[in-house]
Write a structure and sequence with these properties.
This protein has about 240 residues and is α/β, with parallel strands linked by helices. The chain has one domain: Rossmann fold (3-Layer(aba) Sandwich), CATH 3.40.50.1360. About 30% of the residues lie in helices and about 15% in strands. The chain contains 7 helices and 10 strands. The strands form 2 sheets. The chain has a 7-stranded parallel β-sheet with strand order 1-10-9-6-2-3-5, sandwiched between helices. Strands 4-8-7 form a 3-stranded antiparallel β-sheet. Helix 1 packs across helix 2. The longest helix is centred in the N-terminal third of the chain and has 18 residues. It binds fructose -6-phosphate. The site of fructose -6-phosphate has 14 residues, from loops.
C-alpha cells in the first residue's frame, strides 16, 4: 500500500484528483469506480475545475458507483444517483449512458446484485476504484462483520452509519435502513484502489484498518491484501499512525 500524506482536506482532494486524472489520461476509456459521501466532494470539484480548463476529458469514461440507498427514488436529493449527477456527471462531458449506480428501486435484491455484477463484468472490471471509509471501517456499505466473499448485495445499515448519515436528512427517521452495495469481493477485484480519509475523527480507524489485523470487524482492513492500493489521507487522519 502506498500512503500519501496530505496537509489538509484541500490538498488530499487535489492529490486524489491528480491520481484520477492520470488514470483517465493513461486509459481514456477506463472504468472508474466512484464513491459518494462528504470525503470525495472536493476531489470531484477539482476534477470539474480541470475539465472546465480543458485538462481532462470524460467522453469515453464508464463509471460504476459503489452503492445506493434502497427504496429511494433517483429524483430524491439524498439518493446517490442525485449526488453523482449534482457533483460530477452533470458538470463534465461524461455520457450518462456510461454511468452505473445500483438501482435502489429494484425490489428484488438478489436480481439487483446479479445485474450489477454483470454490468461491472461487461465493462471489463473496474480500473480504478475510489473509496471513502466510515468511522467503523466500512467501505461501500459493507459494515463490520460482513463476509469478505460477498459481491453486490443488499445490506441493513449499522446504527452508527444511520446516525452518521442523518445529517443529510430532515430527521433520522428518513434515513433509509437498507442499501445496495458492491461487496468486499467486488471492491477487491478492482485493478487499482484509491482510498481517501480526512479528519481527526477517523484517525483511530485509519490506524486500525491499515496497520492492525485484517478482520471482517474492520472491513477496510482487507485492503492490506490488495496489491495496488493508494491511501491519500490528511495529516489529521494519519495522526494516530506512528511514523
Ligand atoms: C459512499 C460510501 C461510504 C462512504 C463512507 C464515508 O459511497 O460507500 O462507504 O465512503 O461512509 O463517508 P464520508 O465520506 O461522508 O465520511
Amino acid at each position: 500500500m502506498r500512503i500519501y500524506e496530505a496537509k489538509d482536506y484541500k490538498d488530499m482532494s487535489r492529490k486524489a484528483a491528480n491520481i484520477i486524472s492520470a488514470q483517465v489520461i493513461m486509459k481514456p476509456d477506463c472504468t472508474l469506480g466512484l464513491a459518494t459521501g462528504s470525503t470525495p466532494i472536493g476531489t470531484y470539484e477539482q476534477l470539474v475545475d480541470w475539465y472546465n480548463k480543458g485538462d481532462i476529458d470524460f467522453s469515453e469514461i464508464h463509471t460504476a458507483n459503489l452503492d445506493e440507498y434502497r427504496g429511494i427514488e433517483r429524483t430524491n436529493e439524498q439518493s446517490y444517483y442525485y449526488f453523482m449527477n449534482h457533483h460530477l456527471f452533470s458538470k463534465v462531458n461524461i455520457d450518462k449512458n456510461n454511468t452505473n449506480i445500483p438501482d435502489g428501486m429494484n425490489p428484488d435484491a438478489i436480481a439487483e446484485g446479479k445485474r450489477y455484477e454483470e454490468v461491472i463484468r461487461s465493462l471489463g472490471g473496474v480500473d480504478l476504484q475510489l473509496l471513502g471509509m466510515g468511522h467503523n471501517g466500512h467501505i461501500g456499505f459493507n459494515e463490520p462483520g460482513t463476509e469478505f466473499a460477498k459481491e453486490t448485495h443488499c445490506v441493513d445499515l449499522a446504527e452508527s452509519t444511520i446516525e452518521a448519515n442523518k445529517r443529510f436528512f430532515a430527521s433520522i427517521d428518513e434515513v433509509p435502513r437498507q442499501a445496495y452495495t458492491m461487496g468486499i469481493r467486488t471492491i477487491m477485484q478492482a485493478k487499482k484502489i484509491l482510498i481517501l480519509v480526512s479528519g481527526e475523527e477517523k484517525a483511530d480507524i485509519v490506524a486500525k484498518a491499515f496497520f492492525g489485523p485484517i478482520t471482517p470487524e474492520v472491513p477496510a482492513s482487507i485492503l492490506q491484501m490488495h496489491n495496488d492500493v493508494i491511501l491519500v489521507a490528511d495529516a489529521a487522519a494519519l495522526s494516530k499512525v506512528s511514523k
